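Could you join me in thinking about how sequence relates to backbone shape in a protein? Would you write everything just below, so we can both look at the same thing?
***
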Amino acid sequence: MTAISPGQEAPTRTAQKLRQVHTITDRFGMLNTYLIDDGGLVVVDPRSSLNGQLILYYIERFLRRSPTDIDLIVLTSLETNQSGGIETLRQRCAAPVAALSKTRNRASSPGEEGRGYEGGNLSIPLPFRTGELFSLDALFALTAPHLRQVSIWLQDVGGLPHHEDWRVIATSGAARGYFCLYNPFSWELIGGAAISTTEGGMPILHASSDQRGQQETLRVLRDLQIYYLYPGQGKPLLARNAAAQIRLDW
C-alpha cells in the first residue's frame, strides 16, 4: 500500500483550505483510490475488494477514524466493475454510491433524486451514437453489478452531496461516466479515469471520439488553479500550475 497524506511540501502560496486528499495505491496495477477528508470521508473509486480493505486499514490505522465516518462513495468511471470495493466498504459503512447523471438510464436501480440529480433521458452526443454506442451497451452490461449499487446521480458542475466544495467536471468521456472532482479552495483535482500520469510524470487526458469535447475539457482544466493533481493511474503531481502540464492522448 502506498499512501500519500496531506502535509507534503507545496509551492509557497496562501491556501484557503488545507489539502484534503489521501492517495491509496494498488501497487500491482498502480491504480489509485482517493479518500477525501473534509470532516466527513468520501471514497473515490474503491475499485477491488483489496483496495477496499486497504482503505479501511488506512482509515483506522492512520486517520484514527471509524469506517462509519464514510458518508459517500464516488465512481469517476463506469468502465470497470468496482462492486468488489463497494461491497467491502459497505460491510463497514452505510455510504451511498454516486456516479455521473449522464449514465443514469443505463443503471438497473432508479436511484435517488438527490442534490446534483439530472432528470430526463440520457442524451448522448453525436460522436457516441454510432459504433461507440454499441460498445457502450456491451460495456454497461458487463459492469451492471456496480451500476445497481448507484443511488445518487451527480450533475456536471454540481457539488458532491454534503461536500459542496468538491465540484463535478464532466469530461469528453462523459458518456462512459468520466468526470473529475475539483476543489477550488484547496486547489486539488481528482482526475479519476479521465487522467493518468506517464512514468515521467506527465498528466495525460485520455482520448475520446469527441475531439472537440476533448479540447474543451482541456481548456476548462487549464483555466483552473490546480496545485495537486491526482490521476486515476500513476503518481500524483504537485506543481504550481499542474493543469498547464496536462496533454491530450490522441
